[in-house]
Amino acid sequence: MTQSSPLRGLQIVPVPFSEEIRHGDPLLEKILGALKSSRLSPKVGDILIIKHKIVSKAEGQFVELDKLKPPPRSRAWARRYKVDARVLELALAESRRVVRRKRGVLITETRHGLICANSGVDVSNVDGGCHALLLPKDPDASAARLHRGLRKRLGLSIPVIITDSFGRPWREGLTEVAIGVAGMQALHDYRGARDPSGYPLRVSIEAVADELACAAGLVCGKLARTPACIVRGFKYRRARGLARDLIRPAATDLFR
């Protein structure tokens, strides 16, 4: 458990960036610069949450779309549903398996084990459609590098959560999920504890990294130019947690 004071209220403090992140930019320095520009001094107990796009951009996870040559089958399917065949082909190349392919929607399992649309391939907020942006190669490793860098530069152990926007079965709209985690447990396991009425909890495991990602999404909007925020006041559990911990094993997944 962190040494922060008892939970009295949760703060989500936006960290805007003055300029776009580009391939090769030192992301840690950019984050520290944005914190300084916002006159934000990180404290014990703070959590840094960042959108995956600035991580992917800094790591050079770009693909030039005009260099892709989709096969006839992909082009025909794309024409039928008015989608970009190049993005479709790239999504297939980035996938481990196709979960669902219907009415112009492609749901895949990525190499990371994430279930999402188009393997997380994105063309929005990149450069007007010339390039597609992929997910970080290893979001947990990316989060760990930033976590170590912040500890070295600030002398504080600040957990880092990298997020992306996902759709959900049976629910409209997008919400944020954690795809990279470092410095904290991604899950809080309450099994064996008792509720206020004395009832023993048997299956209660809370996906706190996803919940924090969702909270951050309220200030790190699609058009807000705010790809990061500080969450303050949450009692996280310090550990070597990973976003991979949030992926349900196939053996216990009733939807496979």
What report would you give on this structure?
Helix 3 crosses helix 4 (85-93). The longest helix is centred in the middle third of the chain and has 16 residues, at 139-154. The chain is built from six helices and twelve strands. Helices cover 25% and strands 25% of the residues. It folds into two domains: 11-60 and 136-247, 60s Ribosomal Protein L30, Chain: A (2-Layer Sandwich); 62-132, CofE-like fold, CATH 3.90.1660. The protein is of the alpha+beta class and 256 residues long. The strands form four sheets. Strands 1-12-2-8-9 form a five-stranded mixed beta sheet. The protein has a three-stranded antiparallel beta sheet with strand order 4-5-6, covered by helices on one side. Strands 3-7 form a two-stranded antiparallel ribbon. The protein is globular, with a radius of gyration of 19 Å. Residues 1-6 have low confidence and may be disordered.
Report a brief summary of the structure.
This protein is of the alpha+beta class and 256 residues long. It has helices at 27-37, 52-58, 72-81, 85-93, 139-154, 208-217; strands at residues 11-15, 47-51, 62-64, 95-102, 105-110, 115-117, 131-133, 160-168, 171-182, 188-189, 205-206, 228-232.
Question: Top keywords for this entry?
Answer:
256 residues, alpha+beta, 60s Ribosomal Protein L30, Chain: A, three-stranded antiparallel beta sheet, 25% strand, globular
Report strand %: 15-25%
Oligomer: single chain
Coarse morphology: globular
Radius of gyration: 19 Å
Order of helices and strands: EHEHEHHEEEEHEEEEHE
CATH class of the largest domain: Alpha Beta
Distance between the termini: 35 Å
Overall average pLDDT: 90
Structural class: alpha+beta
Largest sheet: 5 strands, mixed
Q: Estimate percent helicity.
A: 10-25%
Instruction: Say what the CATH topology of the largest domain is.
Output: 60s Ribosomal Protein L30, Chain: A
Would you identify the regions where 5 or more consecutive residues have pLDDT less than 50? 1-6
The CATH architecture category of the largest domain equals 2-Layer Sandwich
Domain module count: 2
Distinct helical segment count: 6
By DSSP, the count of extended strands is 12
The CATH superfamily of the largest domain is known as CofE-like
Strand order of the largest sheet: 1-12-2-8-9
